[in-house]
Amino acid sequence: MRADDQDSDGFQGKTSHQRLSFLGPEFLTWLYFHIDQVGGEILISKILPKWPSREQTVKIAIGKRMNLKPLVVTETRISVVGTALDDSGEVLQAIRAGAYVDSLALNFVIGERLHYVIVQAADGAIGNAKTEQSFTVSDAQEDGENLSVHESSAETILLRMSNLDEIEDLLDGLFGQFLKRRLAHAYIEQDVFSMRQTVADGLVAKLPKMAKTAGPQPNVDFDAST
After folding, report:
1. Most buried residue, 105, 129, 170, 209, by CB count within 10 Å?
2. In angstroms, rounded to a whole number, what is the distance separating the alpha carbons of residues 215 and 226?
């Protein structure tokens, strides 16, 4: 369906994309907690049934940057930058106040490949994608394979495309898993309850620490327009 296609079903002329735009922030917020619940590691075949290896896992970690904002129309945004955002009191406080994750930096590790990426909730766009891996074109040259400049460039482009495809597949698989949970009758009783409980427990656990001046805290930027 095109972005300009509209359904006449009483939703005040909103497109399907507009009516379902809440799913992006819900997905990233769910994923933020889900990563901790699975211990930061998922069997790839569980989210991608056609994956070649049935036993290979992907390790997922929260990156160093995320933005949050309420689902309602508002200019208030919260930007959090740090090295421990998976256990950030600022993030938990924002979510308790009604904010959802609007963009999230993620790290994926599959074998010897490490993918860095920032995902936008509004449209699922992938930004700042970067991959580090042990095998590169320079490695092949050191092993005695003489590659021309043209061959080297082509190899690099194909490698980047392959890495980006892999990132997109992983995100699609995780989103599919989220949709299954979202449509389940137990979503509110189990998933939402678990997220709320994690927020409550996490904030209670941080109360003694917040009363002390202990170490550097993540940088938090509040951007509120009136």
Report:
1. 170
2. 33
What tens digit of pLDDT does each residue of 15-66 get? 444 545 789 999 999 999 999 999 999 999 999 999 988 899 999 999 999 9
Q: How far apart are CA 82 and CA 98, in angstroms?
A: 21
- For residue 68, count other CB atoms closer than 10 A to its CB: 27
State how far the alpha carbon of 87 is from the alpha carbons of 93, 162, 184, in Å. Answer: 11, 32, 28
Q: Which residues neighbour 160 within 8 Å (Cβ) at sequence distance 6 or greater?
A: 131
Burial bucket for residue 148 (CB in 10 Å: 0-12, 13-18, 19+):
exposed
Containing 110, the helix (H) or strand (E) segment is strand 99-110
pLDDT tens-digit map of 67-83 = 999 877 667 788 999 88
Cβ neighbours for 153, distance < 8 A, ≥ 6 positions apart: none
Contact 218, 85 (CB under 8 A): yes
